[in-house]
Amino acid sequence: MSTSYLTVARSASAELEVKRSRFLGHVERVGSEVEARAVVDRIRKQHWDARHHCSAFVLGHDGAVQRSHDDGEPSGTAGAPMLEVLRGREVSDVVAVVTRWFGGVLLGAGGLVRAYGDATRAALDEAGVRRRLLMSRYDLRAGHADAARWEAELRSRDVVVTGVDYGEQATLHLAVPAGSAAGFPALVAALTAGAGVPEPAGESWVDG
């Protein structure tokens, strides 16, 4: 199983013109098919005067879910080349929408493939990329007198401290890359002179 993947760093748009047709490419980070389709619907309503709103999306840390839609363009000339761009950039959890205002000149199949692909690439260039990491989460209980020192020691070892709860004891919520999880209990034992025992609390994907 992969322990990291790329997604877009931010939502972004880019526009190009080909033989008087305008192509507005937009990419956005999403977490589900429902979210992806909601983005398409939002852009369709926002640019209601455009003829086509073609789309493609890739979802999941392994890119297992992939969809594309030509929205009235000749089959294979819009959604498929957009999807190929997403695959080529190796990004996931992202939807791409290219809105076209027809300029009166037919572009032909090859011209459409290039235009939709180029608009998607331009939007991705504007968005940038961000790596997501699979992190193993742990809870570490500490006495109040030790909590701040343990937290500082762990941070100095690049352990992510996602939060601290204070009750009768302090509970440090920690995250480490899944690939480093096997050695984490030994690290905690060394830093706490054997007093700290991290309790596994699952896994989650976080932005690197």
Task: Explain what this protein looks like in three dimensions.
This protein is α+β, with helices and mostly antiparallel strands. It has 2 domains: 4-127, 2-Layer Sandwich (Ribosomal Protein S5, domain 2), CATH 3.30.230; 133-207, Alpha-Beta Plaits (2-Layer Sandwich), CATH 3.30.70. It is 32% helix and 38% strand. The strands form 2 sheets. Strands 1, 7, 8, 9 and 10 form a 5-stranded antiparallel beta sheet that branches. A 5-stranded antiparallel beta sheet has the order 2-3-6-4-5, sandwiched between helices. Helix 2 (79-89) packs parallel to helix 3 (108-127). It starts with a strand and ends with a strand. The mean pLDDT is 95.
Secondary structure layout plus pairing:
Layout: E1 4-8, E2 12-18, E3 21-29, H1 33-46, E4 52-59, E5 65-69, H2 79-89, E6 94-101, H3 108-127, E7 129-142, H4 144-156, E8 160-166, E9 170-177, H5 184-191, E10 199-207
Antiparallel strand pairs: 1-7, 2-3, 3-6, 4-5, 4-6, 7-9, 7-10, 8-9
Helix pairs in contact: 2-3
Task: Characterize this entry briefly.
Helix content is 32%, strand content 38%. The protein is built from five helices and ten strands; from the N terminus they run E-E-E-H-E-E-H-E-H-E-H-E-E-H-E.
Question: What keywords describe this structure?
Answer:
208 residues; alpha+beta; Ribosomal Protein S5, domain 2; Alpha-Beta Plaits; 2 domains; five-stranded antiparallel beta sheet; 5 helices; 10 strands; 32% helix; 38% strand; elongated; Impact_N_sf
Mean pLDDT over the full residue set: 95
Number of domains: 2
DSSP summary, beta strand count? 10
How much of the sequence lies in strands comes to 35-45%
Using only C-alpha atoms, the radius of gyration works out to 23 Å
Briefly, what CATH class of the largest domain?
Alpha Beta
Helix content: 25-40%
Secondary-structure element order, N to C: EEEHEEHEHEHEEHE
Low-confidence stretches: none
Largest sheet: 5 strands, antiparallel
Quote the CATH topology of the largest domain.
Ribosomal Protein S5, domain 2
**In the CATH hierarchy, what is the superfamily of the largest domain?**
Impact, N-terminal domain
Distance between the termini: 18 Å
Overall CATH architecture of the largest domain:
2-Layer Sandwich
Helix run count = 5
| Global morphology | elongated
Class by alpha and beta content: alpha+beta
